[in-house]
Each structure stands twice: as structure tokens, then as C-alpha cells.
Amino acid sequence: MSAQLERTAIVTGAARGIGAATAKQLAQDGFAVAVLDLDEQACAPVVDEITAAGGQALAVGADVSDEQAVTDAVAAVAGRLGDPTVLVNNAGITRDNLLHKMSVDDWDAVTKVHLRGAFLMGRAVQKFMASTGWGRIVNISSTSALGNRGQANYSAAKAGLQGFTKTLALELGRFGVTANAIAPGFIETDMTAATAARLGMEFEDFIDAVAGQIPVQRTGRPDDIAHAVSYLVSERAGFVSGQVLYVAGGPHA
Fold first, then answer.
1. Helix/strand number for the chain, H first, E second
2. Which residues pair with 57 in a beta bridge?
3. What is the mean pLDDT of residues 152-170?
4. Helix locations, the chain, DSSP H
5. In which region does residue 206 sit, left (phi positive, over 0), alpha (psi from -120 to 50) or beta (all else)?
6. How many angstroms separate the CA atoms of 162 and 144, rounded?
7. Three-class SS of residue 20?
8. How confident is residue 23, by pLDDT bands cut at 50, 70 and 90?
9. Is 154 annotated in the active site?
10. CA distance 125 to 101
11. Which long-range contacts (CB under 8 A, 24 or more apart) does 207-215 make?
12. Which of 31, 119, 128, 154 is catalytic?
């Protein structure tokens, strides 16, 4: 068995959407995968699909913004699947509103999940990576990091993840650990479907409208991001660190 086949990955926010696609892709790549989300039961379908295909997966329920929950979750993964040396920080929420309507709770909720969650998860797994002498951290940012009307909280959190990523690359590189970020554009997920609903649009109509503004003339799918993660956590990407990869179908203005 190769070294990579023995490695363990944690994917947060993995019960659906980008996280689920990423967990399944990493399982195909030979990793044992911890499918982590707020509700452990919601992870079961993803775990079942991975195990049915011959992979190894574990459902883990944890609030990534809770320090003790993160500590317990990472310990459980290490005990059940082996030391985690790949981390994909994908967990996220939205609480969209214009600045003058945005509550402090809306601001705090979004920054806690995206930024505090990535910090807590990264801090918890880095010791396993450093002791192994190999590791990969991928933080899921967004094109919204460049600014997006009605998303001051989300944009700030996603931009913060990019700075966090670059700092991790500087601090952890000497231990054989790379840290990179992926900034998706419009991806067809439950989250973007909810955005369409808030706008009073059918999701298909919303997709068509957005696709017309994207150079490749289509919207993204969760697998588009999963494939990018697959590269960044591979041996082939060992000299790629501190980078932000925009997976958005073209330049984002």
C-alpha cells in the first residue's frame, strides 16, 4: 500500500454540496475520510456512498466554531481512522444583508463558522501533520472575497481565509505542510438555491442568468471544486503553497 493510501483526510461541511463532493473525491483518491458536519446523521449518506464504493469513511458531528467540539472530533478521527494529515476547511454559512440591515449576530455567526472554524480545525490538525512531516490544508474561500453587495460578513470572512492560508503556508512549510485556498465562483448548491429563493426566482432561471455572465457560459458544480482540491492535496502539488486558486469559469471582476 502506498503512503498516500494510508493517509486520513478531514472535510468540514461535508454532508452536502462542495464538501460532500470533496469527501467522495478524496475517498476515490485513496484517503480515509472523516465526513464532518454539524449534524452527524446528515453525514450518513455520504459515508454510505463512500463505503459502498470500497472506501473508508467516518461520520463526525461537530460545530467547528466550538473549541472543545473540534478537539474531541479531531481526537475521534485520529483514533478511528488514523492521524489526519489532510484538512479541507469547507464549512460555511450565509447571513446575507445590506450593511445597514446586518445585525451583529449575523456578522458573528458567519465569521465564527468560516474564520474561527478554520483556525480551530487548523490548529487541531497541524500537530499531526508536523509530526508526520507531511500535510495539506485547503481552505475554501470564494470570489466574494473580492467584494459582493449584501455580503459584508461573508466577503470579509472569505477574504480573511486567504490571509490565514498564506500565513499557514509560511509557518508550516518547514514541516512539509502546504496550505492553499480555493475561491469558487457560482456553484450549484443548496446555498445558491437558497439565494435564488430569496430573490423570488426559480433556481433554473437563476442559473441561466448567472451562466450568461460567466466566460465559459455555465455555472460551477461541486465536482469542479472537488477536482481542484484533489490536485492541491496530492504529491504533485508539493511545491504549491500559499496560493489562492479561483475556480470560477473565468476572471472575476
1. 9, 7
2. 33
3. 98
4. 17-28, 44-52, 67-81, 104-111, 117-132, 152-172, 190-198, 203-211, 222-232
5. alpha
6. 12
7. helix
8. very high
9. yes
10. 37
11. 210/186, 214/185, 214/186, 214/248, 214/249, 214/250, 215/249, 215/250, 215/251
12. 154
Pull the grid cell for residue 47: 459515508
> What is the second-level CATH architecture of the domain 4-185+220-247?
3-Layer(aba) Sandwich (3.40)
> Quick one: angle between helices 117-132 and 152-172, nearest 10?
20
- Lowest mean pLDDT across 162-171, 196-205, 212-221, 232-241: 196-205
Torsion of CA 3, 8, 85, 90, to 10 degrees: 140
Grid coordinates representing 108 are: 458573528
Single-letter code of the amino acid located at 150: G
Q: Please state, in angstroms and rounded to a whole number, the distance separating the CA atoms of residues 51 and 47.
A: 6
pTM: 0.94
pLDDT of 48-62, one tens digit each? 999 999 999 999 999
Q: Count the residues in the chain.
A: 253
Residues 7, 79, 128: CA angle, nearest 5 degrees: 50
Higher pLDDT residue, 251 or 8? 8
pLDDT at 1 over 50: no
Q: State phi, psi for 225 to the nearest 5 degrees.
A: -75, -40
Distance CA 37, CA 69 (A): 11
Q: Torsion angle, CA of 60/176/161/139, rounded to 10 degrees?
A: -40
The mean-pLDDT minimum among 2-11, 111-120, 123-132 falls in 2-11
